[in-house]
Amino acid sequence: MASAPPHTTGDAVTEQFLGHRELLFSVIYNMLGSVADTEDALQEVWLAWSARHRTPDAAPVENPRAYLVRIAMNQALACRTVVTRRQETYVGPWLPEPLVTAEDDVAAAAERAESLSMAVLVVLETLSPLERAVFVLHEVFGFGHPEIADILGRSPAAVRQLAARARRHVQARRPRHRSAPDVHSQVTERFAAAAIGGDLHALLELLAPDVTLWTDGGGKGPATSLRPVHGRDRVAALFMSVAATLPTDGLNIRYRRVAGDPCALIFSGDGPIAVVIVDLAPGGNRIAGIYSVTNPDKLPRAER
Question: Fewer Cβ atoms within 10 A, N terminus or C terminus of the chain?
Answer without folding.
Answer: N
